[in-house]
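User: For my dataset I need records formatted as: sequence, then structure tokens, nothing else. Please produce one.
Assistant:
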Amino acid sequence: QVELAESGGGPVQPGGSLRLSCTASGTIFRIDAMGWWRRAPGKQSELVARITNEGETDYGGFAKGRFAICGDNANHTIYLQMTKLQFEDTAVYYCSAEKVLFRDGHASWRDFWGQGTQVTVSS
């Protein structure tokens, strides 16, 4: 089993910045990819950013140039630096972990999800 602990959300003014963190815990040997998704009220979930174990990144169109994701494989932790935040960025941000290989050798192909952290952009 994998637990994902997110932190760093909160209120911020337009144009401001926030840094989200997510750490996966459990008897983990390797995680193929981790990422951030978000869901705004009345909208579908959308990819914010994703990073693979090899360091390859992928961003949602709205995130390019404003958000940056990085990872610490040894500690199964990812960070999302968000800048130039806009009202439209208000959402619950969820951390995900994909394709986890556990220390006992078994692998899980399901995705694991955190509880989410609220980001509210308001003046």
